[in-house]
C-alpha cells in the first residue's frame, strides 16, 4: 500500500522556485517573498470567492493568479534588482559603521598613535597608518553609496555598476582589515599593553570576516542583476 | 493596453492610488486596475519590488498590519511621496500636451475650410 499522494500547494511551489532564484539579504528576501505570498493568496481568493467545503480558493484560481503575477523567469530579475541594491546597502553600511568603530578601537589601544611613546616599531606604525587610510577611504565610499541608493536616488539615477563597485570596495576594506589584524597580532608581541592590542586585533579580524562575507554576496548579486537595468532606477510593469 | 505602455509610468500610478490613504500590495494593484477600468495590464508580481524601491528612496513608508491570521504590509505616501506625485502629474501633463500637439495639430487659421 502506497502513501496517499499529497499535492503541493502551487503558491508554495512557485515561491520556492522564486526563492531559489534570488540572492541577497535573508530578511529583505523573506519580506519580499512573504508579501508576494499574501498578494497571490488575495488574488486567488478574488478569482474564486466561493469554494465548496470551506476551501478558500481552488487550484484553477491559484494557477490563474500565478499566471497573472508572472512566471518565475519574468519576476526574478525585478526582485533580484532590488535585492542586489539591498545587499549593496548592507555591504556599504557594514563598511561605513565597522571601519570607524575600528579606528576608535585602534586609537583606544594607542596602536595608530605616533605619539605613543614610540612603543611600536616604525614599520608597524607606517603600515597601520597606510591601512587606516585605505580603510577610511572605503568607509567614505560606503557612506556615499548609502546616500546614492537612498533618498538621493529620487534625483540622480543610481549608477548601474555601483553594486559591483561596492562589492570590490568591501573586498578592499576586508583585505586591509585582514592585514591590519595580522599587523596588530605581530605588534601585540612587541608592546607592553598586550590585552588591549590583542582585543583590537581580534575585533579587527571579526570585522574583516563580516565585511568579507557581505562583499562576497554583493559580488554574487551584482553578477546576477540584469546588465541592461539601471540599478535603483525605475522599474517596469 | 499592453504592459509595455505602462513602462516608465509605474511609479506615478502607484503613488496616485495611495493618495487617499494606506493600502496593501494587492489592494494597490486592484486600485490601479479599477481606476483604469481594466485598460492597464500590469504584470502584478512586478508591483512588489517597485513598492520596495519607492520605500527605499523615501517616497513611501510601510507598516505591518494584522487582519485575522493574515499579516499584510501597508504602504502610505510620505511628504516626499506627495511632492513626487505632484511632479509626476506635471511631467505627464507636459508629455501628453507635447504628444497631442504632434498627433492632433490645431488647424492653421488660413487653411480653415
Any low-confidence stretches of chain B, pLDDT <50, length ≥5? Answer: none
Number of helical stretches of at least 4 residues of chain B: 5
| Main beta sheet strand tally, sense and closure of chain B | 3 strands, antiparallel
CATH architecture of the largest domain in chain A: Up-down Bundle
Unreliable residue runs of chain A: 112-116, 228-232
Tally of structural domains of chain B: 1
Order of helices and strands of chain A: HHHHHHH
Largest interface pair: A-B, 33 and 34 residues
Q: Can you summarize the main beta sheet of chain A?
A: none
Mean pLDDT of chain B: 88
| Dominant shape of chain B | elongated
> Strand arrangement, largest sheet of chain B?
1-3-2
Briefly, what CATH class of the largest domain in chain A? Mainly Alpha
Give the termini distance of chain A in whole angstroms: 49 Å
Beta-strand percentage range of chain A: under 5%
**Computed CA radius of gyration of chain B, to the nearest angstrom:** 18 Å
What does this protein look like?
The complex is a heterodimer of chains A (237) and B (113). Chain A has 237 residues and is mainly α. Chain A folds into two domains: 10-70, no CATH class; 82-224, Four Helix Bundle (Hemerythrin (Met), subunit A) (Up-down Bundle). Helix content of chain A is 70%, strand content 0%. Chain A has seven helices and no strands. Chain A starts with 9 loop residues before the first helix and ends in a 13-residue tail after the last helix. Chain B has one domain: Arc Repressor Mutant, subunit A (Orthogonal Bundle), CATH 1.10.10. In chain B, 51% of the residues lie in helices and 16% in strands. Chain B contains five helices and three strands. In chain B, strands 1-3-2 form a three-stranded antiparallel β-sheet. In chain B, helix 2 packs across helix 5. At the A-B interface, helix 2 and helix 4 of A face helix 3, helix 4 and strand 3 of B.
Amino acid at each position: 500500500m502506497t502513501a496517499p499522494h499529497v499535492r503541493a500547494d502551487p503558491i508554495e511551489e512557485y515561491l520556492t522556485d522564486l526563492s531559489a532564484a534570488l540572492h541577497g539579504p535573508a530578511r529583505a528576501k523573506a519580506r519580499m517573498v512573504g508579501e508576494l505570498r499574501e498578494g497571490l493568496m488575495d488574488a486567488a481568493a478574488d478569482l474564486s470567492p466561493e469554494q465548496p467545503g470551506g476551501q478558500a480558493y481552488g487550484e484553477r484560481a491559484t494557477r490563474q493568479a500565478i499566471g497573472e503575477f508572472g512566471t518565475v523567469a519574468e519576476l526574478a530579475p525585478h526582485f533580484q534588482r532590488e535585492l542586489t541594491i539591498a545587499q549593496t546597502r548592507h555591504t556599504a553600511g557594514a563598511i561605513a559603521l565597522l571601519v570607524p568603530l575600528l579606528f576608535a578601537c585602534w586609537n583606544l589601544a594607542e596602536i595608530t598613535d605616533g605619539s605613543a611613546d614610540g612603543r611600536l616599531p616604525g614599520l608597524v606604525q607606517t603600515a597601520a597608518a597606510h591601512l587606516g587610510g585605505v580603510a577610511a577611504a572605503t568607509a567614505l565610499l560606503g557612506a556615499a553609496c548609502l546616500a546614492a541608493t537612498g533618498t538621493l536616488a529620487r534625483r540622480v539615477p543610481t549608477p548601474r555598476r555601483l553594486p559591483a563597485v561596492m562589492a570590490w570596495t568591501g573586498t578592499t576594506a576586508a583585505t586591509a582589515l585582514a592585514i591590519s589584524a595580522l599587523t596588530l597580532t605581530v605588534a601585540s608581541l612587541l608592546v607592553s599593553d598586550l590585552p588591549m592590542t590583542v582585543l583590537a586585533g581580534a575585533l579587527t579580524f571579526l570585522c574583516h570576516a563580516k565585511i568579507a562575507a557581505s562583499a562576497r554576496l554583493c559580488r554574487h548579486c551584482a553578477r546576477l542583476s540584469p546588465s541592461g537595468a539601471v540599478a535603483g532606477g525605475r522599474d517596469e510593469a | 493596453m499592453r504592459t509595455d505602455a505602462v513602462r516608465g509610468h509605474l511609479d506615478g500610478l502607484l503613488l496616485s492610488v495611495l493618495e487617499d490613504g494606506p493600502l496593501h500590495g494587492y489592494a494597490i494593484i486592484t486600485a490601479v486596475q479599477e481606476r483604469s477600468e481594466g485598460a492597464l495590464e500590469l504584470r502584478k508580481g512586478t508591483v512588489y519590488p517597485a513598492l520596495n524601491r519607492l520605500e527605499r528612496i523615501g517616497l513611501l513608508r510601510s507598516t505591518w498590519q494584522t487582519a485575522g491570521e493574515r499579516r499584510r504590509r501597508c504602504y502610505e505616501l510620505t511628504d516626499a511621496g506627495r511632492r513626487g506625485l505632484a511632479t509626476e502629474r506635471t511631467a505627464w501633463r507636459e508629455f501628453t500636451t507635447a504628444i497631442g500637439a504632434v498627433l492632433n495639430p490645431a488647424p492653421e487659421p488660413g487653411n480653415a475650410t
